[in-house]
Design goal:
The structure holds three protein chains of three kinds.
Chain A: E1 13-20, E2 30-37, H1 44-55, E3 74-77, E4 80-83, E5 92-96, E6 103-105, E7 108-109, H2 112-120, H3 140-143, H4 157-161, H5 175-185, H6 194-201, H7 212-216, H8 223-235, H9 242-257, H10 262-270, H11 274-285, H12 303-314
Parallel strand pairs in A: 1-5
Antiparallel strand pairs in A: 1-2, 3-4, 3-5, 6-7
Helix pairs in contact in A: 5-6, 5-8, 6-8, 9-10, 9-12
Chain B: E1 3-12, H1 16-27, E2 32-35, E3 52-53, H2 60-74, H3 81-93, H4 95-101, E4 117-118, E5 122-124, H5 132-146, E6 151-152, E7 155-162, E8 167-174, E9 179-190, H6 211-219, E10 223-224, E11 229-236, E12 260-262, E13 268-271, H7 272-275, H8 283-295, E14 305-308, H9 314-320, H10 324-329, E15 339-348, E16 351-352, E17 366-368, H11 380-400, H12 408-420, H13 431-445, E18 448-449, H14 451-468, H15 483-507, E19 516-517, E20 522-524, H16 525-528, E21 530-537, E22 540-547, E23 559-561
Parallel strand pairs in B: 1-2, 1-9, 2-6, 9-17, 18-19
Antiparallel strand pairs in B: 3-5, 4-5, 7-8, 8-9, 10-16, 10-21, 11-15, 12-13, 12-14, 14-15, 20-23, 21-22
Chain C: E1 3-8, H1 10-14, H2 18-30, E2 33-37, H3 54-69, E3 75-77, H4 80-95, H5 97-107, E4 120-122, H6 123-139, E5 148-151, H7 161-164, H8 173-180, E6 184-185, H9 204-220, E7 225-228, H10 231-239, E8 256-258, H11 259-266, H12 284-289
Helix pairs in contact in C: 2-11, 3-4, 3-5, 4-5, 6-8
The chains are: A alpha+beta, B alpha+beta, C alpha/beta.
Chain lengths: 316, 567, 305
Amino acid sequence: MSPSLKQTTEPDKVRLRIYRFDPAIDRAPRYDSYEVPHTPRMRIMDALDYVHETLAVDFGYRWLCGSKKCGTCAVNVNGSPKLACWEEAQPEMTIEPMDNMTVIRDLVTSRDPYEAFLAKLQPLVIRKREYSGFPEPLTEADVASAVHLRDCIQCLACQSVCPVLQQPDSGFAGPALLVALSELSQDPRDEGDRAKMAAKEAQVFKCVSCYECERVCPVEIPIVGEAIEPLKRLAYREKSTPGARRAGAFLDSVKKLGYVNPSEVALKTQGITWNGLRLAFRMALRGKIRLTDALFKRPSPGAETIKTTYDAGESR
Amino acid sequence: MVDVLETDVLVIGGGAAGTNAVLKAADRGAKVTMVVKGLLGKSGCSIFAAFTPYFQKTDEEIRRNRWRFMIRYYNHYLADQEYCARMEDYMCTEFYPDLERLGVYWRRDAEGRLEMVQARTRSLVAHKQGATGPILMDKRRREIFRRGIPVYEECAVTSLLTNGERVVGATVLDYRRGRFFVIHAKNTILATGHSDYLATRATGTREQSADGIAMAVRTGAELANLEIQWWHVSDVLEPKSWMRYHLYPNPLMGTLETSRLYNSQGEMFYEQKTHSPGAAAPYTEQLRRLALEVAAGRARWDGGYHSGYDHIRAETINTYQHQAKVWSKLGLDVGKDRIECGITWHMRHGGLNVNAERMETSLPGLYAAGGVGCHYLGGFGPASFDGKVAGEAAADDALASGRKPFSQEAVAVEEKRVFGFLRAGSDGPRPIQAKLRIRQIMWDLGYVKNERNMQAALAALQAVREETVPRLRLQSTTRNWNTGWMDALDACAMLDACEATVRSGLNRKESRGPFYREDYPYVDNENWMCRNIVKRMNGEWQSRTQPIQAPYLPPEKSREPFFEADY
Amino acid sequence: MKRTYAYFPGCSAKSTCSELDLSTHAVAALFDVSLIELENPGCTGAREFRAISEQLHLTANGRILALAERNGCDLVAVCDTCLLNLTETNRRLKEDSEARDAVNRALAAEGLVYRGAIEVKHFLWVLTEDLGEESLRARVVRPLRSLRAAPFYGCHIQRPKSIYGEDGEDAPALDRLINVLGGEVVRYAGASKCCGFHVVNVDQKIAVRMSGSHLGNAVAGGAQCVVTPCPLCHTVFDAYQPSMERQSRDPQATPILHVSQLVGLAIGLSTEALGLSRHVVGCADVLAHIGYSRDRTGALPQLPA
């Protein structure tokens, strides 16, 4: 009996367009094209290795372990970040450094901003009580909520596609750092003020919930649901941040009216601002809102029932 | 003039040994500086740690099994047994608390008991079997950064500096920017690991070109048992980069079963549980059995045989095994399908000749910790112990002694050597071609060795040294992450390390563990239970042997046919 | 064949985007689709309830699902974020009996029960899948004359992949719809990206820059309008448009249409029925392109009698 290996039809050749840029020498990036023979079950990294071994022997690319452990080989392939050691080589590939990163040379980018931000988050268990000795009393259930977060290999693919991080000076930590922070915040041994860190340092409420990070995560961490939202629920306690105020105002509005009143939520989140007023006038002019909405709207007939049910749900 | 950074203790290498050396030396109050060729906690072989051994003295039978495993199966009677006793104490008392304090979670069950690999010995996993290393290294990395210890990442140490008698630091090339500098140290700890990328198929990571071994050779340090190199049998054949995926043949978490190897006829020819129950790391046994299959035409070294967990419940493998993802990514079913394998050079037992009480090498001022030493095979726990011993010894010594000058001339010579490779042109071979050639030579030498093929390998290495290296040309002379430049330096290191390895092999006139000589097909404990030592002084190779004591667990037979031994 | 759905308009369609509710009803009526609007459904919580308490999130959405179930038919949403909240909750409550029991205990006082008997879908999919391209095409009386429309999907109708699967659909629903109506799909690098709505109150400039860049790309690609299935995206693109720093050469205002409005135009509904006057950015150029005549007073053009 010969073992059952599934044979797939594989192409003969792989065509690559590789981003080349040496900031010390080049004025602008260029793209070099290479054609390499396809090898069985070829990964993106195998194709890059071939280029390095035969065609462009000095070209800069980074990988260390070749087995999805170190998380250093992620590059953009046809516009989307992929872990080069893990994903299959495509017949046509445009390979570029990941977005949102400073290029050192060619495909190699700097990880320094990530490490610097991570250090600010005090990324080890913070203990106030004396460590009790190995093994600490812990059960699988104590740490189960963060089980997927421990898969993170810090490849930074998520950071590279985060639209908030793409904005200058957003102040936002980004998904990979929130995964690290969230794991710590869910650790029953940790006694750091993670709520404050999530709200102030990491600015978790700047997450737009676009799920781009989950789309590209090579280890398939449910980043929004299992890392970011638990952090938001912690940071919700920090009422001084706009994000927490917004969530609170939103819920208050629904409980009071039976539906959400966007004008009121905006006012309670931001206060009275010039931008807010301009927006309100603009919308009022087209009948989208009334200028008095922020102060008064009529509750729906079922508002009280809704509040009762929500309160019952929330208290569980 | 090159920049000079002053430090008490320089640690070269950022794996289990290097990171613990840095932390423990800093605990003693020394100023510590670290240089890592890759990225701290992300390069080298420590991230490959599948699990950590759980040493206990409470259960006498398990303890006896552990000792038998350490001495016989893992180290083939080449370990320093007094070291093993001290290391056992460390594993029982310090290793786990040190890492758990930082937040490592070793897997528990619903009642809070530690989950264990249940074999004759016990092992623990952080997260999953096969994913333990990255988690442990991540915590160490964060702790080192937290303490503000200077770490030079993506910097290659190119040579050790001496003052004629003592190692006093090293020259370093920051290959991100092409900056060459000196770290002037009172003591230097070499912690560059034992798993190098020296053969066409190897599990060593990209940056691992045996720089530590090579620098030791060039500085005239003694090296022992370099020839005891392990090949992994059950590593993925295709895709090529996945040769580093090891389909564990050792006991698995969550089951009493172990993986199986099948020849090209589909016949099972090896299973640890059945064929070598005492050898929890059954690599030498796998190799011998594969050799028989290869000889019979039922497998090749590079394929034609398969490994699988298809006799084990898929759910068990998926729950506990990091490696299960290899199947799913290839579109295979871990509960049904098997994966074709090839052998890969995994690691070596030998390394610098050390006094394992303090991890001192034959050169004053130079310490060796972890797999780059010769006293024990390695592993995350033992390497951490080495790091502690070396870090504390080097720090204490440094705090008590003055700084010795280094030779400016040697720095200038090394600078010239390093920058000499920065020559562009199309009139010579490319550095990567030299690396590939060296790997091919070591692959061709392979597992089955004899006087003739080792001499041939030496000659082939010599040809690369003499004919290829002087003519190496780059495509570009940029100093900015010039991969070709790094390759040239790697190739030189690999040549020194490979030559030392083959010479060491020629000296050993027996077979042992993963080292097999057709012309000496027996284990000879009477004459060769020793450190088989080589060193190069002024271009001349010297050798000697140093017997190994076996105060706790002596071998049962003084001599036995290699294919009858089980270790 | 009459099709009946429970209908959850969501808060936007009942306030800042009332034209969405209006046009959805108008289009549905023409296709013989009956939308039974839920009474006092509350809110799916946008991204806020789930940032306060998971139980609150499940309860609020479970309540809407339970209300819909009483009608014995699938539930239709017209907002991406509502769609995701409801779909995720529906899946979770179907699979996780503990969570379901907890929600049902909270609903008990109202006499509501979540049973897990229905599915949730977007009105866009009712059009493209349930009715199908053929019946849409048959209804088109005023083809869009190759109107260059840039689809903007919004995040929560396509991600996360745990709900919607891997991306990679060649011709997603909105693209197909634009083609069926006689429009031309503008390809640009923003169709699947995020508008930034959920951060707009927290840091307006982030949202405005994000959507501004998408709009710039769409305009650079020749878009005459943007079409979106989500009122939250609509709000950012329309109401905040005057604040956007355009990334493209062309600063002219770009109308933003709801899916139901685009369909309504092609099937001959009046601009009043579609609430087209209720946008911050006027739609006159789009109407002119597809042949609605302008009247002398400058009022919005009407379909000729």
